[in-house]
Batch of 3 targets.
Target 1
Amino acid sequence: MDKKENSHYLGVISLIRTDKVGINEYEVIDGQQRLITTMLLISALRDFYIALNELDCAEGIQKEYLLAVDTRQVFNKLTPCKIDTYTFENIVNINEGEGKIISLKFDNNIRLEANGFRRVKKSDKYINKNILFTYEYFYKNIFKKYQSIKNKGAKREFLLDLEESLKKLEIILIISENIESLFLFFDSLNNRGLQLSQIDIIRNNLLKTISSSKFKDDVEEFSYLWDKLVVSLDNFDGVKFLKYYFMCTKENKIFSSKELPDRYNHYFEEIDNKIQMKNEIEKMIDYAKIYTKLFDKSEEISNDKEYIKNVKRINELGQQACHSFLMDYFYNVSDENRRNKITSYIEKMMFRRIICNYSTKKLDGIFRDFIKLRTESENRYIYDDQKIIEAIKRNSPNDEEFRNMFINREWGRDNVTNYTLRKYEYYLTNQNGGVIHTLKSRKDVNIEHVMPEKYSEAWKKKLAIPEEKYQEYVSKIGNLILLEFDINTSVKDSLFAIKKNDQNYGRSTLKQVKQIIEYSDWNLDVIDKRTEQLSEIALEIWKL
């Protein structure tokens, strides 16, 4: 916070009074994240004082901001939801005074270093990585700033400024005697356009429905389940998940994010049985776990199962609209071979649509219709893979259209081109009976223009064609290969005779580069011929 600022507004914190005898106690309904983030900053500052061996200052911060102290007892100011208790007790609520005195939990990891923060021991209990990351982020930045200050007095002023900034934080508290009154207040806020996040509104509607139902005594249990759902989403797009999940329900409809709270409100209101409601939320949690895995952005590795490789390639193409269907398919189909086959077909479908410039706007409807093809059996759905494959073919460009667009496409330095050339490399390896090794990342294997992007004087002299004609051919697929990074940087704009020698292309281990070396010359006719050949191979690789 700027030293000149008088205050910093943190927003509205909404509470419900749940007083016990002699204790003012509240349940935080809205504002948990802001409170927890602030307490993690305070905890990082406290532990930095411990690293400086200034224990009195550390205990003073714990007492002032993290504990409620009266004549006979000491309480933690904030207790998180059950699922985060273990993490919080090891980072924030570290007082070991048995409710009577202030005595901070010792941690020998704390020291005056960038990574000298408190650690949470591995356990079978859930550890919230976001809480850890935030606490560590604050500690590292306090250390970095402190170390950058050379003057000892200025170092002390920096820490005092941090403490003073905590006193400048301001909030507005809304305290209600019961949850029903608070729900009405939330509705009033949303009706006036002061909206909470969509996922918070849906949570509010769920708990509102439960509080007015036959199982109103179970609000806390369902609040915990919803928190578990949010944790399962692990910072992924929760609104998109809720949209996709609704496509997988019996209603099987598509709604905008703005419409979702109202639709889920009606959906939850129709469930009047506690067991059914609990099963529904637990099912959502299972779907959320599948959803987050589908959006895995890690690099493909050789040990990945085939359907995981396919999904990663779909993500590489930026075509995640199919994950609504795949989320439901994976929930209902565990057979690995079936997953391999269907994801392979979807990968081919998505690639063909990209090459032929098909609109992405229809994809949600297409995959919603795929979900409609399932049939219900007891508490599960059954998919007929042949019907899915037929639907994939109906929604994909035919061979002639695909081949023509493949030939005439202007290929850039992007994920689609990189993906295409990788698939071609795997095809060549498979054709030669070799072991397919997953290619390294784009940092190690680059897109190489055999006829370089820059029309240099040497190439002008060799080809003797207009600039416009040159640019037309330079981005054809027949002029492109994958090439190891170190070789790619060394050849640059060289003529083909230089590029293909043993010191350059000759060092490559890639099959497509070895093919290129076999050409005696590189010109427009060669590019046309290779483009035609690659288009025929493309029909094999992405065959439907």
Note: The first helix runs from residue 32 to 51.
Target 2
Amino acid sequence: MELGVLERSPEAGDVGAIDDLVAGYVTRAERFTARAGAVRAAGDQLVSVSVGAWASALGERAARLAAGLDDAAGGCRQVAEVLAGYGAALRGLERRVMVARHEVGTARIRAVAARERYATAALAGGAASVPWLWSDVPAFPAVPAAAGELRVWQAAVQDAAAGLRAFRACCDEREDLDRATAARLGGVDVMTGYAPGTGVDAVVDVPLVRALASAAAGTLTAEQAREMALWFNGLAIKVSASHRNQRDVQMLSDFLDVHDDESAAVLAALFEALGGDRTAALVSGLAEHPDRPSLDGDPSPLLALRVRAALARGSWLWSPTQAEKFAEGLFDSGNLYGHAARAIDYLFADADGARMSAALTIAVADRVDAFEQEHGRLADFGQKLGFRLEMSEEPGSEQRLPLDPAASVFATLGTYPQEARDWLTGGSIDWSSDIQPFDRARIGYWFGERDWSIPKSDGFAGIGALWAGVQGSNGPLDARQVASINDAVFEQLAINPSLLRTEHISNRGSLRIAEAVGAQLHGLIEVGGNRGPAYSDRQWEKVPSLLTREGIGLIPIQGVVAV
């Protein structure tokens, strides 16, 4: 009798985690139902205050959106029903497997004991030896005096065989249950959206089930976040490769919507798995339509905004090494002259609402700097992605600004004052002395050589935001660093030809430069003057000056241009 089959585990699976998953889908169904009601109510209100074709279009769009949310709610309920049945079947299977294992184990004990007693009787009757496996028929002559033991042995062997048959039936039942569950889940649209291409593995895989349950409970670990990200990575790759339809886009949007409320760890793991190159392709493909989403409900531009916000949130959990790897993907040589420049510009275009982490911003700024100083501008032509989604619609605001990824990256870098100061001065330097030499190569290029003028760039808005951002300081050491940066920036701006004509500077650029200069007005001293007949040009000298409002003492710097 072969007992090796008992090593199989047809009862494997965490039924409690599946129950939690069922509860999660029920909650999602309730959430979608509530959203559908809210959309319908909002649509009715809009229609009531609108007229003509516009009112009809608004009503139709609201109705379609609400119907889609109802479908999502129905799909979640179907998934919950399928998983509830799966969990109940697994519970019953666990009990039958336990009974079968117990039956085989106890029957074997009885059979072995009866065999030993029968063999003892055979030896007492004169048998020379009793070679006998517990499950085999005796190979020696029968012993009439121990016929009762033989009957006990036979009954025990039959019980063990019955238990093995029951266990094998459980194994077959588990395989059938998995296949049937996969087929039922495959017919539910929302399950395809939440687990594309994974089939029943998304349910029976214990680590994934536990990860989903942990996400619902708010106890998600980093490893579980990676598990969930890899689970959904396939659809994101499909959308990024442009092999998508509107349904794919909506499913990705639903995923980001659901998990944005649960854990940034899932988003961090998702974009780490997706990589910078595919993320660039994803947002470039989604945001390529310049107009706002139309009444026919194309969700692609809105999803591009959601992807950017999700990346910003997830990037805050990345280490510098993870950020460097993602940035390396953004600058993949195969994408650099395609959609990468537009995607970088788009991802960093909203420092207020979707600010990338300091680690990611620095990693991308490093690569922008290295590329431009070796090869020239990252993008010499083209239009910004989704530019109408970025419009402020305020009077005087610039629209259709040309593509310049460096401007967006530097504007974001300016929101991290200390990191920006360290980046401009080439790293961590001991600023304890009044005058500290530092590498001025970056300031020299970006403020002295780079052409930021309209229409080639944003008219000094991005680089101006970086300069304005470094002005804040928290003590004497920071103030010395700020003073050194300002000295170098003024020196370079004085020789930048693109700053000489006011029409080259945008409204935002003027504002940012004014902010940077205004933060220094309390300490700036102009000391230009002629030095006698031998010098016809005005000269500049170093003077002691209070450069910050913190009152840190006198700092000798080089004089600056008039404001």
Note: The chain has a mean pLDDT of 75.
Target 3
Amino acid sequence: MYDLVEDADDIGNLNSWLAFEDRDRFDPIQDGWITVNRHGHHRSETSIGTVEQGFRIHAFLVDEDDLDTIVDTDPFGEVGTFDFNPMAYGSRRGDGQYWEEDLTRSVDGVEAKRFVMDFRKDAPLPDTGFIEYHNLIEREKRNFETYDTDETVVRFPHEKWEYLSSQSSHFGLANTIRSLEVRAEFLKDYLKQRGCALVLAYFQSRDVRETQEDISLLDDDREEFTVRGGKAVRGVRRNQPGYELHWFCPIRADDIPYGREERLQEDRENLKFETKQGYRFSKEEAVNEIGFDEAGYRRPAIGAEDLEEAISFFGWTYFEPEVLEKYKNDSRGTVSEWSRQGLQVNWLDKMKLRAYRNNEDLILIIVDDLIDIPDEELSHWYHYNTSPAGEIPEEMITNYIEADWVDSESPSDAVINAVTELNEAFEAKYGVRLYRETDDEIDADRMLSLPRNEKHELLNVMSEAHQVIVENLDRGNLESQLPEEVSEDVEGKKSALFELVKDLSDTSTAAEILDPINAVHDFRKEDSHMTVSSGGWPRAVDALGYEEDSEAYRDMYRDAMRQSAASLKEIITLIEEDSN
């Protein structure tokens, strides 16, 4: 139906192939895709001769109740009738000139509705209602994806189209086929919503240009038959030995095996998430608390005699930390760390999920909170669902079992808060700001915990932390508070900060206080591939208490952030003591 001949094996018996005797095998759905618009020709040199195929396919919509009228209509020469344009213009007797949107055609009193727009100088465009219904966005020319899940729904060979459009003539080109295809499952949902069927106004020609084979064409100029429930007419080609097929191919919503909504419902019902106790629940089961009694999960979760029993009332569900990468790295999502262990994961306006990080860096939710994961995202979370390891986070127990608040800081918040408080202390003593940006002016997302335990992830975040702790310093204000003989020899912001701390204490104390900040600086040099005679990775990990070949990158991150925050607070203490 859509196949292009590449060699003699694709043809088999030449006369049979020319006569479309393979039509009983035609299927408008191929690998989950339906071609709704196709133009062009394809010539192939094979061992039995040169053959050429020509295509013209236009899809249109018709109400389900009117489909029988369409499929019984003679399609011969009518395919071009369903070439819908953006606008129609002309004149009508008694009405004069008209200029209106080209939306419908009348076929034996039945209304055929536009599904694809053809342009004279541009690529064909699927129905804007279809695009809007599925919230599609155009990533490349006529290639559309879902906005929320990046699934490709419409595909088109845009590079080939651009090349062909740049040619003054297609004469001599072997392949000018351009096909606009839509994902069948998305089309099914749209057809059901509109109460319509899709009809392909289908034309294909098959010619033989050169061959040593005997060609025997049938005597009948035209022959009618039914293909997949739609009337088809085969006609003899005029200029070359071969035939052409004209056909109205009906596609009902029920002809498509499943729709996207059905697939998502299957995910909702069949993707089973493992809990700490070994029980497995789908989202559908969790929402309706099916199987909770058998698992020992009480709702409401009350009546426990001790903490251990209270913990058994919940389905603690574990995920690998990489589950967060998608939301951290995409502008449509966010991951925020609101406490030492607590997280919030957002995706568009569809998901606000509370989660926690445990001592093994696994991400935990309770199984009840599957309700907060949209059906479109379930497969992503299911992929990262893992067997339990490590402890249930203390703060999770505090929130869910003790129903109490937690008061702690994430590593990024610890740094931001320390920077903000140091700036306030400095400004109170010296009357000028120490940092250019503080508090909410600093983007905490830049310094979130590592989604992967990898060295480059650590170095990336350390570079961001260096930007906040060191590069963010107002060098002029800082150096203005140093003794004149010192400020002249200061080489940079970190050096200026060291001189300030030394002036408030002594050399040894200043070196000790700035040790973690120096580690962050060395990580930043390593990330920048700076050539240094000393320092870099070896000095950084040594300052934090790790071996040079250690791969505990997440632990290094936490230690570097919290120790740097502690260092900044020690500087606050020195400033306050000096003020007193």
Note: The chain has a mean pLDDT of 93.
